[in-house]
Structure formats: C-alpha cells, structure tokens
Amino acid sequence: MQTIIEPFRIKSVEPIYFNTREQREDILKKAFYNPFLIKSTDVLIDLLTDSGTSAMSSQQWAGIMQGDESYAGSPSFFRFEHVVQQITGMPLVIPTHQGRAAEKILFSIIGGKGKFIVSNTLFDTTRANIEYSGAVGVDLLCAEGKLPSVPAPFKGNMDTVALERFIADKGAANIPLVIITVTNNSGGGQPVSMQNVREVKRICAAHNIPLFIDACRFAENAWFIKIREEGYATKTVEEIARELFSYADGCTMSAKKDAFANIGGFLAMHNADLALQCRNLLVITEGFPTYGGLAGRDLEAIAIGLMEVMDEHYLQYRIRSIEYLTNKLIAAGVPVMLPAGGHAVYIDSKAFLSHIPVHQYPGQALVSALYVTGGIRSVEIGSLMFGKYDDNGALIPAQMELVRLAIPRRVYTQSHIDYVAEVIIEVYNNRLKISGLKITEEAAMLRHFTAKLAPVTE
Ligand SMILES: *Cc1c(COP(=O)(O)O)cnc(C)c1O
C-alpha cells in the first residue's frame, strides 16, 4: 500500500524550543508534576490536547480577514449559521465562545437537583456543568468500551439495555436529556455506530426524552462509520454526518475540535422554546445571539473549518496517523487502548505501570516520565481527572487509568510522531524506575487542571 501522505503543504511554521532532561526535571518539579502548569515554550511536542490547537488553512486565514465585526446581524454569523444548519439539519443555531459555554447554558436550563443526564461517557467539562447545576451525570458505556485491550469497531456505543433499565428505574420525567459523545473522548476517542445512535433515539423517543449529540468530533466519527459500518462505504462523510444528526434533537459542539478553529462552539436544536431560553441566557453570559462570545472572524473560520474537516483525504490521513503511532507502540509491547481512536492514542497506564497502585496515580506518573524523558506533554484521563473520595476520604478510582496523547490537527509531521514513539518506548523499557505521586493541593471541581502533586518517595 502507498504511504498516506499529509494532504497539505506548509506555508507558515513556528519554532520548537529544545531543552535538556535536567532542565525538564526542574521545570516539572516547579510545575508540581502537573503538565497544565508548564509553559508551552518548555514543551517539545505538545500532545496535551487537540482542542484549539489545529493549524488553520489558508482559506480559514482568508476568512478571518473577511470577518464582519458588526455587533448585530453580521454576514459572518449568517455564513456560520448556514453551514451548521446544512450539516446538522437543525434550524436554531446559537454560537458560544467554546463547547463548555454551550453546555453551561443547556444544563443551567434543563439540569438541576433530582435530574439525571445520561450519556455513553460524559466529557469532563460536560459532567462538571451537569453537576454544577445539581443534576447527576450517568455514563452507560457498552461493556467492550471498558476493556482497553479488547478491540471492537464501535467501543463508544451506549449500553442500550442499561439505558432502558435506567429509564425504568429513575423515571423518564427525571431524565431531561440523553447526550451521546461522538467520538467518545474520555473513553478512548472510540466511535459510536449509526446503529447505536438509531437505537438510542428509538428508546428516547418512546419515553419522550430529547437526544442530544456532543458533536465535537462528528467528522472523525462519521469517517469510522464509513469505513467500519455496513452500508456506509459509498456514502459521503457529509451524508453520514447529516444522518447522524437527523436522529438528534440538538447538539453541543466545540469548534476547537472538528472545526479547525482556535476558539468557538455552538448549540443547535429543533425546539424553539428551548432555543429561546438558551438565547436569553446567552445574552447575559456570552453575547448577542449573532456572535455569542465570538468575533465575526472566528465565525468565518469555523464555517470554513466545518466544511474542510469532512474532506476524505484529510480524514483518511487523520485517522491513519493515530493508527500509525498506535501500531508502533503495539509492536514494542506498550499497552495501548485498542483499536486506535480518532484523535488520540491512549496508553493503559494501569498495565504500563502495574507496580504503581491507582491511589498513587500511575497515569500522572507516566505523564511526568514522558515529559522528563522527551519533552512530550500528555494528559492523564484516570483517577486524577475523575477520581472521587468516599466518606472515609479513600479514593474511589476512575474506571480506567489512561494517558492520552492527543494529536493536534494538521500540526505535526510523521517524523514528530516517530520521535514520540521512540520516547514512549524508551520510557516503557525503563518503567520500573518510575514511582507514584500524591496530591498535595486540589480544587473541588476539575481538579486535574490545577492540582499540585509530589512524588510519594519524598
Ligand atoms: C472539548 C470537549 C468539550 C468542551 O469543549 P471546550 O471547547 O473545550 O469548552 C465537550 N465535549 C467533548 C467531547 C470535548 O472533547
């Protein structure tokens, strides 16, 4: 098979700043073993997130110059609105400054005490916004999704049997919304099948529960459907995306993911009453409904990015580059989540650092080792991010202890990825020298962003 090449040329570059292992040891210590507290100029390859880190295209930069900054009724808004309507089929489009702002508005209105919001897996900001409203977030992921080492085509699927049971148990009146995350970011970037979305919709419709899609990676998910699900091979990504959205009553989106934008997001829906309430809140928290916390130029960049992301040469390269890194790690025996996800490689740190107990945060220990060894910044998706405490203050661990290496869109080349593989393999071969961490300071919500840690040996 021919090499799948990057489907772009590079017109503008930015430098990578190099440093030494000794310098990185010092930097990490001063950042309290939390990569969110490291300066980006102290990072060689930044795989902290694929959010807002895309390289924009020359078309998008040209769109930036076309941005109309009128407070009300900007043509940039109407271009943005038109593209979102075309892809989602949803008539009511509400721009927000990023995905979590859309979540905050939605869950302020439909959440609240006594309510349950059900998902395949809620992303951390989604869960936080649900919990902040007083509601309870519930993850009903399919069984295969919980087994990192077992490959399956659609490990992001919701467990529909559990969904029926949950609705019977809690009562549909207490479940204002079901939301499916595509692809399932916190569960390994694994896709959700069309069949599963259809089935979830059928169950929701039978109980009059609206179905929303957390659409951050709708194009990556559509690509997986095209190549893995029967009956979709000859459909275009746009057709698949439109079908996916056709089952939903609304969606939330972070344009920092599959819209190649550096900032932005939106809410879209069919229900006019709900949209009215959302816009009323939007005006207080984000801005007037035709800009919603964004500049006109951002709306242009998002509108163009949403169309570009559905290019099949791009998606083939995108998904292949994640698979390429995953395969290199598998060949070296590194325990990774299988199969490769859509936007990131997930290392199973419980298996990688089996000598470190979960209450010593093996994921964060691995994140630290990757930074010190090769200047690679990654993020823990495990008990630091999702852990809770029981009444005795003992850690209730997360379902999995993953380390995510998120690949920014159109940013790094194959040799960068080869370097990343070399560093991970070096760390793997020296894994027994790595020790665990303890938390010395933490916030009540989203603690992983600001937590301070220290080695347990100190
Ligand atoms: C990034 C993300 C969000 C939140 O979007 P922001 O733009 O970062 O606020 C919500 N859900 C998923 C699945 C995400 O990946």
Would you mind describing this structure in some detail?
With 458 residues, this protein is α/β, with parallel strands linked by helices. It folds into 2 domains: 175 residues, Alpha-Beta Complex (Aspartate Aminotransferase, domain 1); 251 residues, Aspartate Aminotransferase, domain 2 (3-Layer(aba) Sandwich), CATH 3.40.640.10. 40% of the residues lie in helices and 14% in strands. It is built from 16 helices and 16 strands. A 7-stranded mixed sheet has the order 2-8-7-6-5-3-4, sandwiched between helices. The chain has a 3-stranded antiparallel sheet with strand order 9-14-11. Strands 1-10 form a two-stranded parallel sheet. Helix 2 packs antiparallel against helix 11, helix 8 crosses helix 9 and helix 14 packs across helix 16. The radius of gyration is 21 Å and the shape is globular. The termini are far apart. Pyridoxal-5'-phosphate binds next to helix 4 and helix 5.
